[in-house]
Amino acid sequence: MWIFNQEYAGFWQFVKFTLVGMVNSALYILVFNVWMLASTGLMSSVAGWLVSLLGQWIDLNQATALGLIGNVLAWFVSTTNSYWMNSKLTFDGVQVILWRVLIKFYLGYVFTNLLLYSWLTYVQMELLGMPTGLVSIVNVLIVGPVNFMIAKFWSMKPSNP
Predict the structure, then answer these.
(1) For 85-96, what is each residue's pLDDT tens digit?
(2) What is this structure's pTM?
(3) Cβ atoms within 10 Å of 60's Cβ, excluding its own
């Protein structure tokens, strides 16, 4: 079929990257919510220790501190899974040096998901007055393709050891 020709390979690669992103968004939400539930129940002593550790540097209430810890945990789990899925499915098992590519993958996601997303949110809400719901949609539409470009041309690009 014409749409599966080699000239559309980049398009299908982007589609696979988007589907992997959707899976990892669901995984992020799952891990975050499981953390929030577990941190008030079974893991309350571990969560309390982490909150007190975090409280040494930042003055936060317990719910916010647990949310920040959950965010970092969920980001780490979903980004690690994103690396694995994209290296196997999107970029067709590219043979790469694991630790080097994984570090580059994390750095790319820190740039886009932490710095770029936060900056866009600030500009859109503080300077442009956009509603929160619209901000998140616009940011996903901007950050998603940037993540793809960073992965395709930098972090997942095959290189000589």
Answers:
(1) 988 888 876 655
(2) 0.71
(3) 14
